[in-house]
Amino acid sequence: MPGFMYRRSFFYRNTAVVLLFLALICAGWKVFSVLQSIQLYDQAEKLRAAGKLMDAEDAYLHALAVSDFDYRRAEIASALAALQPETRMIRTVSSLKTSVASSAASLDVRGLVKAYNDYTEAQKESAAQGEEAAKRFAELAAEARIDRT
Q1: Is 107 helix (H, G, I), strand (E, B) or coil?
Q2: Cβ(20)–Cβ(56) under 8 Å?
Q3: Using alpha carbons only, what angle is made at residue 85 by residues 46 and 53, rounded to the nearest 5 degrees?
Q4: pLDDT tens-digit profile of 29-71?
Q5: How many other C-beta atoms lie within 10 A of the C-beta of residue 94?
Q6: 44 in Cβ contact with 56 (< 8 Å)
Q7: What is the pLDDT of residues 40-49, one digit of tens each?
Q8: Other CB atoms within 10 Å distance of the CB of residue 143
Q9: Could you tell me if 40 and 63 are in contact, meaning their C-beta atoms sit under 8 angstroms apart?
Q10: If DSSP codes are grouped into helix, strand and coil, which group holds residue 68?
C-alpha cells in the first residue's frame, strides 16, 4: 500500500512539472511578443522621424500584426491613417516613373500616353485632397523627374 501512494505522488509531481513547463513556455512566448511589439513600434517611430515613410509604414503594419499583445493600437492606427495618403502618393509617383522609363526606353508611344494620362489623373486626385497634397505631389513628381519627361 505505501508503494502505491508513492507512485501516485510521483504521478502528481510529474504532472505538475509538465504543467509548470508548459506555463513557462506560454509566458516566454508572451514576453517575446511583448518585446517584439514594442521594438517594432519604436523602430517605426524612428523611421517616421527620419523621413523614411515607406519603411515606417511597413514597421507599423508589422507591429499591428502582432496579435498576442495590444501595445499602442490606437497610436499605430492613427499613424497609419496619417501615413497612408503620403505613401500611396509615393507609390503612385514611383509607378509612374517606372512606366515612363520603360515606355521611353522601348519607344512605346501608347505607353507614354497612358503614363501621361495616369499622371494627370493622379495630379487631379492629389489636387482634390487639398492644396498641401497637391504641393507634395508636385514635389515628388519633380524629384522623380516625371513632370518634365
Answers
A1: coil
A2: no
A3: 20
A4: 988 888 888 899 999 999 999 988 889 999 988 888 887 777 7
A5: 14
A6: yes
A7: 999 999 999 9
A8: 12
A9: yes
A10: coil
Cell of 63: 507591429
Which residue reads 499613424 in cell numbers?
A: 79
Nearest to 147 by CA among 127, 113, 123: 123
Backbone dihedral angles phi then psi of residue 96, each to the nearest 5 degrees: -65, -40
Name which of 97, 101, 105 is nearest 122 in CA terms.
Answer: 97
Contacts of 59 (CB under 8 A, 6+ apart): 40, 41, 43, 44, 47
What cell does 59 get? 514597421
**pLDDT tens-place string over residues 101-124:** 877 777 877 878 888 888 888 888
Phi and psi torsions of 147, nearest 5° = -85, -10
| Cα(143)–Cα(87) distance, integer angstroms | 15
109: its cell numbers: 508611344
Q: Which residue has the cell 523614411?
A: 52
DSSP secondary structure code for residue 69 in this structure? -
Question: How far is CA 58 from each of CA 12, 74, 124, rounded to the nearest angstrom?
Answer: 48, 17, 27
Averaged confidence pLDDT in the chain = 83
